[in-house]
Design goal:
Elements (H helix, E strand, L loop, with lengths): L1 E8 L8 E4 L9 E6 L2 E6 L24 E3 L6 E3 L5 E3 L11 E4 L4 E7 L8
Antiparallel strand pairs: 1-9, 2-3, 3-4, 5-6, 6-7, 8-9
Length: 122
């Protein structure tokens, strides 16, 4: 069984923007979305360098100054938005964990996970 949870409307994430979400009610953001080149990329909000340290230095602040990379505020590691691969920093060559997202025909963005969770949608 695949569980889904609503994240946001597609038009709520502008080009070059990042946002964090707490889809499973854990009390902190566990997922981040980034829109680049008209596509939405979803990643676990956890740096691979140090036991899953949250990435943002403040709410929704996941990108470097020119919005070309995802940055871990704790370590300065930089990650490619599209592949999640670390291109600079202490976890060079490691990758962010991708999360499965779905954009419905109604333009809602959901996260999916196997084995249970919150809300089912059609």
């Amino acid at each position: 069984m695949t569980a889904t949870a609503f994240l946001c409307r597609d038009d709520a994430l502008a080009e070059g923007q990042s946002r964090g979400f707490d889809p499973w009610g854990e009390g902190h953001d566990t997922v981040l979305l980034v829109r680049r080149g008209g596509k939405v990329f979803g990643w676990a909000d956890a740096c691979p360098h140090h036991g899953g340290t949250p990435m943002a230095w403040r709410k929704d602040a996941y990108l470097n100054g020119d919005r070309s990379r995802i940055v871990c505020a704790a370590h300065g590691a930089q990650f490619d938005i599209e592949s999640g691969v670390c291109t600079l920093g202490p976890c060079l060559g490691q990758s962010l964990q991708p999360v499965e997202i779905v954009i419905t025909s109604e333009q809602d963005i959901y996260i999916c996970r196997e084995g249970g969770g919150d809300t089912e949608h059609d």
